[in-house]
Amino acid sequence: MAEKSGPQGDAVDEEGWTKQTTTDEPRLSELVELYQELGFEVQLRPVSREDLGADCAECYLVFPERFRTIYTRPKGE
């Protein structure tokens, strides 16, 4: 995925998806619902090592299936 820096420094890919955060349940479902209510398309992607901070990497190594990175874009793009 080619990424570039957006106006706020967020990672934006070539299809207009902006990386928001990496998290697990129950926060994951809450954030997906919130972004959808705000009018965004939401895409969940597997976590890459670059998505994790030093203090998060250990949990990811133990439970990699629990975490997803949330990407959003305005509907209709």
Structure in words:
This protein has one domain (3-74). It starts with a strand and ends with a strand. The protein is built from two helices and five strands. The longest helix has 11 residues, at 27-37. The strands form two sheets. A three-stranded antiparallel sheet has the order 3-5-4, covered by helices on one side. Strands 1-2 form a two-stranded antiparallel ribbon. Strand 1 (3-5) and strand 2 form a beta hairpin. The chain has 77 residues and is of the alpha+beta class.
**Gross geometry:** globular
Low-pLDDT residue intervals, each spanning 5 or more residues: 1-9
Distance from N terminus to C terminus (CA atoms, Å) equals: 17 Å
Strand content: 25-35%
Q: Give Rg in angstroms.
A: 13 Å
What's the overall average pLDDT, rounded? 81
Helix-strand topology string: EEEHEHE
Q: How many strand units? A: 5
The number of distinct helices, counting runs of at least 4 residues, comes to 2
Q: Note the main sheet.
A: 3 strands, antiparallel
Strand arrangement within the widest β-sheet reads: 3-5-4
- Give the domain tally: 1
Helix content percent band = 25-40%
**Class by SSE composition:** alpha+beta
